[in-house]
Amino acid sequence: MLGLRPATPWCAVIVSALAALADGEEPSFSGERAFAHLEAICALGPRPSGSAAMARQRALLVEHFRAAGATVSGQAFQIRDRRTGDPVAMENLIVVWHPERRERVLVGVHYDTRPFPDRDPRDPRGVFIGANDGASGVAVLMELASMMRPLPGPVGVDFVLFDAEEYVVGARDPYFLGSTFFARQYAADVRAEAIVHRYRAGVILDMVGDRDLTIWQERHSVEWADTRPVVDSIWETARRLGVKQFVPRPKHTVDDDHVPLRMIGGIPTCDVIDFDYPAWHTTADTPENCSAESLEAVGRVMLAWLRSQR
Questions:
Q1: What pLDDT, in 10s, does the model give residues 11-48?
Q2: Is the peptide bond before 46 cis (omega within 30 degrees of 0)?
Q3: Could you tell me the residue range of the domain that residue 236 belongs to?
Q4: Which of 222, 78, 81 is nearest to 163 (CA)?
Q5: Can you state the percent helix, strand and coil of the chain, rounding each to 5?
Q6: With 0-12 CB in 10 A as exposed, 13-18 as middle and 19+ as buried, what is 190?
């Protein structure tokens, strides 16, 4: 393990999970531990692409996932800011579990925060922490990390943390820069036969920490023929576990990171998102409006779903 410091919460999680494995127990997802990760991320402050806080978050995550036994690599790219013309360095993180398994599943989140809380009625240029819209999906992956090494085969799992999902200030700024870059690289590698692995499915986790959590099925994910089976299997897993926060009916149509992954990368990817979030893109998107119970609901479903892949 690299950089193991027992005083830090993420290392305590890994130690606890290893102890469970030593006792012959299958480790379970803890919402309390996931919420501690969410708070630690938020303590870094706003984390827009190219910022110092984003760099600190990236270093924290690399240490965390490597300590849990993953192979972690960066996928760097660069844009020019539309307002200043200055270059902005960005980087996706690719966290690989069981790299020898050729058939794989992608679980993606975005780990950047919006530069400003532009929907805030009082302070649209205030401080945006992004507890739910930014940190919640990352916190779920951090907690899942300790359960990936004993994941039964034959399917491998990649966590992909996308930068610049919403590096947006003006109305014409593009979204999904990180996932679009990733999807183009993946598609190019597939065409060139430069890779031996293939993604059988993908799942995006976004805004999954709302303390009043209700996750409807996203309409794109239901209507695309290749992604509907992914939706059905996840919501069936939730039904089997008795996780009532997953509602087996479509409601919102959401453009999110799953769109470029599916449309450009050819990866059948669905979106797991609670879009009914009053604090969306406001200064109120703080840990107080998230909950450990919500993170646990999503984490339990995702862990069981990953364990069911055959």
A1: 554 455 555 545 557 889 999 999 999 999 999 999 99
A2: no
A3: 9-307
A4: 78
A5: 40, 20, 45
A6: middle
Residue 226 within any structural domain of the chain:
yes
Beta carbons of 254 and 218 less than 8 angstroms apart: yes
For residue range 183-210, list pLDDT tens digits in order: 999 999 999 988 889 999 999 999 999 9
CA–CA separation, 57 and 166 (whole Å): 17
Residue 45 included in any domain:
yes
The structure tokens 């576990």 sit at 241
The answer as to whether 73 is a domain residue is yes
Query: pTM of the prediction?
Result: 0.91
**Average pLDDT rounded to a whole number, residues 221-250:** 98
**Helix crossing, 136-144 with 292-307: angle to 10°?**
50
Cα–Cα–Cα angle for 72, 109, 251, rounded to 5 degrees: 160
Structural domains of the chain, count: 1
Count CB atoms within 10 A of the CB of residue 64: 27
Task: Please report, as a single letter, which amino acid is at residue 26.
Answer: E
Indicate whether 299 belongs to any domain.
yes
Q: What is the CATH number of the domain that holds 132?
A: 3.40.630.10
